[in-house]
Amino acid sequence: MTNHLKNNIYHIYDTSNTAFGVDPLSHFAMGDALIRLVGNAEAPAALHFWPMEKLVILGMMDTRLPHLEDGLRYLRNVPTDIVVRNAGGLAVVADEGILNFSLVLPETEKAKLTIHDGYVLMKELVEQTFSDSEQVIEAFEISDSYCPGDFDLSINGKKFAGIAQRRFKNGVAIMIYMSVTGNQQQRGEMIRRFYEESLQGEETRWHFPAVDPASMANLAELLDKPLTVADVKERILSVFTRNGNTLLPGEYNERLMAEYETAYAKMKKRNEQVNQEQYPEAD
């Protein structure tokens, strides 16, 4: 299997530093555009950083909640922006203390990356990012966290990160959110209340987590060291540099922007349901 952490060329995209940063939909559209270009061999592999300020990201399954409008009303009153993402999973929080990062890789017939391989690769990257710590990072489902999954990353049983993947032909993005700083208890309570309002005790054919805010914690707390999102971003970049990779600024060229516009239109359509009240049409 190709070693994606060593001796490769990566283009860096940080959409918090651009005009895209003001529109939550734009980060997801840019992510899809990067997968398309990398998958078509029109661009090298990419590192995509996209910090947010105040956002709840819903999964497609969340749109099936029986009292979704009540849950959305609660979130709007928090207040927080809301987006339905285009990759799997359930509701997560993105704010200034959370690092959202995607590793966008090409696939070929000779170098296929299975879903399991993708998760293992991201775990290995996180382990190298915090190799100066003696804490052991484990990967297993924390069932009472928000957006639980088989590869939840945790320290001492407390989840600090979740991983998702999105795949198109010949391209894959492995995405992670890491709780670095901030009030993780409050984040967990917000998602717990969202499901409480959206379910109202009803049984559904889909499983939604009974969120216990105490099941998750921040990296700064778990590693017992002062950390910021910027620190963790620099640590990630240092891993790639140490491993002999060439890091270059990403180019927002015509091809990328064409794919972005197409992906953005799809994201806008996907979000019509949750954004009706957030951005009401003029009479």
Automatic annotation (TrEMBL):
InterPro entries: aa-tRNA-synth_II/BPL/LPL, BPL_LPL_catalytic, LipL, Octanoyltrans_LipM/LipL. CDD domains: LplA. Pathway: Protein modification; protein lipoylation via endogenous pathway; protein N(6)-(lipoyl)lysine from octanoyl-[acyl-carrier-protein]. Keywords: Acyltransferase, Transferase. Its EC number is 2.3.1.204. The active site is at residue 147. It catalyses: N(6)-octanoyl-L-lysyl-[glycine-cleavage complex H protein] + L-lysyl-[lipoyl-carrier protein] = N(6)-octanoyl-L-lysyl-[lipoyl-carrier protein] + L-lysyl-[glycine-cleavage complex H protein]. GO terms for molecular function: lipoyl(octanoyl) transferase activity. Residues 41-248 form the BPL/LPL catalytic domain. The record marks 159 as: Lowers pKa of active site Cys. GO terms for biological process: lipoate biosynthetic process; protein lipoylation. Catalyzes the amidotransfer (transamidation) of the octanoyl moiety from octanoyl-GcvH to the lipoyl domain of the E2 subunit of lipoate-dependent enzymes. Belongs to the octanoyltransferase LipL family. The reaction proceeds via a thioester-linked acyl-enzyme intermediate. This is Octanoyl-[GcvH]:protein N-octanoyltransferase. The lineage of its organism: Bacteria, Bacillati, Bacillota, Bacilli, Lactobacillales.
